[in-house]
Write a structure and sequence with these properties.
Blueprint lengths: L1 E7 L5 E8 L17 E11 L6 H17 L3 E6 L21 H20 L4 E9 L4 E9 L3 H16 L1
Parallel strand pairs: 3-4
Antiparallel strand pairs: 1-2, 2-3, 4-6, 5-6
């Protein structure tokens, strides 16, 4: 499964959303059979152009795109890695309330808020956001797994595998 969509904001900022089924070969062999029919989907969100703060309208559009893929695929488990390579516009300025957190932590908080807001608005009660925080010597890594209640065992297995791989 592969979906690729571009969105343009009111201020001409452009975003690219890519959702693609994970290659199970990236996981340890012993857990692959335990994944059953779950489709782990990597979610990549990239700002293609622009430097303005992302509007609520655009964030809502991004949520709709991601949610549609998730809802249309009953075996989907979304995997979202909060990137730390690209700066966030206006972050770190003296007047920014988020100036003391990393761009990755900011994206993690934003992703959780977007998820919570979307589920509340749509009335979803059996879909969960499972944040995974990995502490490294030089930084923290933030990952989110989004899944239905029926996949909770598989999500916990994936989470434990990720944390175990990080310890090595």
């Amino acid at each position: 499964m592969k979906v690729s969509i571009s969105l343009r904001g009111d201020n001409s900022d452009e975003y690219h959303i890519r959702l693609e089924s994970w290659d199970r070969g990236n996981l340890p062999n012993e857990i692959i059979p335990l994944l059953e029919d779950a489709d782990i989907i990597d979610v990549v969100l990239e700002r293609v152009s622009g430097l303005e703060r992302t509007s609520m309208h655009v964030l809502s559009g991004i949520s709709e795109v991601i949610a549609k893929v998730f809802i249309d695929n009953s075996n989907a488990i979304l995997y979202f890695y909060c990137d730390d390579m690209n700066p966030i516009p206006n972050m770190g300025k003296n007047n920014s309330k988020n100036k003391n957190i990393s761009s990755q932590q900011y994206r993690s908080i934003l992703f959780s808020r977007m998820f919570d807001r979307y589920c509340l608005k749509k009335g979803y009660i059996d879909i969960y956001n499972i944040p995974v925080k990995i502490h490294l010597e030089d930084r923290d890594i933030y990952i989110h797994l989004i899944a239905r209640e029926k996949h909770s065992r598989i999500v916990n297995l994936i989470k434990e595998t990720i944390l175990g791989m990080a310890e090595k």
